[in-house]
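Lab notebook, page 48
Experiment: co-folding of the full assembly
Goal: obtain a model of how the components sit together before planning crosslinking
Operator: M.T.
Materials (sequences as entered):
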Amino acid sequence: MDDLDRRIINELRLNGRATYAELGRQVGLSASAVHERVGKLESSGVITGYHATVDPSSIGLGVTALVGIQPSDNAEDNEVAVKLGELVEVESCWAVAGDEAFVVKVRVPTVDELERTLGRLRRIDGVARTRTTVVLSTRFEGRPNTATAE
Amino acid sequence: MDDLDRRIINELRLNGRATYAELGRQVGLSASAVHERVGKLESSGVITGYHATVDPSSIGLGVTALVGIQPSDNAEDNEVAVKLGELVEVESCWAVAGDEAFVVKVRVPTVDELERTLGRLRRIDGVARTRTTVVLSTRFEGRPNTATAE
DNA sequence: GATGCGGCGGTCCAAGTCGTCCACGCGCAG
DNA sequence: CTGCGCGTGGACGACTTGGACCGCCGCATC
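Observation: model returned without errors.
Model output:
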């Protein structure tokens, strides 16, 4: 992973649909060379995917919340994480330090649906309590951090 | 926004580099028709971008934390949010209900750097206290929620 | 109820660009 | 010298992208 790789990655983080030819122009390589480098970055697990980002409220997901998951005494973290992953409305799941086992981000259409989701979360084996923080507005999200990448 | 749009969006959320021809095959339209639909989805703000997702530790960002931002009494939220956005290590920023004004997700190379980042956060005008939750592992993140999208 | 019309949204087509593969060249280490 | 890593350039099929055209639907008119 050299400087050229970092520049390619950076470009792809900003514009995931950039063509190889375009990337080549940006970094001063032929499209073939870029193609090969990107292929290696993908197969070595540095680039894990490409995704369109969508305005959540446009697709009927206007309510976001961060939920801390307090485990019960006998909880097995990995099992709980799998169960959390089975709920489609759970978009992200972080295992954290502190008295909560996980913090998850959920995205649902309405507060009614949020209530139902919290019910589903509490019903998971190993979940003792939940602590919900409602998101009022998302100022920005998933911004590419290029601190070390360029 | 009809069912075809939703299927196209869904596909692009899973594979942001899908070609128009490919999308056309999936949904049963010509590439031209898909091209036009995607163009409209982009210009109407439903699709806000395309991004490669990168394994953070591969690019030297091995430490993640969620930080609650408690505002000082005279804080002006919008100004604080702008300042938060100026720190590249702040990847996401949500304005939340509760006694914290924001929760941000930061991504840094090391815990040393985390300490420095927390210092920078506290030095922002309008920030009284921070409450940091260190992420031990990211189980999943930014997963496309297709609950209403398909 | 027919008829005509206009716009939306699709197909088809064609020119240009791009992706993808392969042969080859260059620099370098063993 | 040889092999290897990594690049270039070329070739060809696939894709993009815009335009011409067409069918359908709703609507106003007769």
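Interpretation: The first strand of chain B starts at residue 47 and ends at 54.
Next step: discuss with group before ordering constructs.
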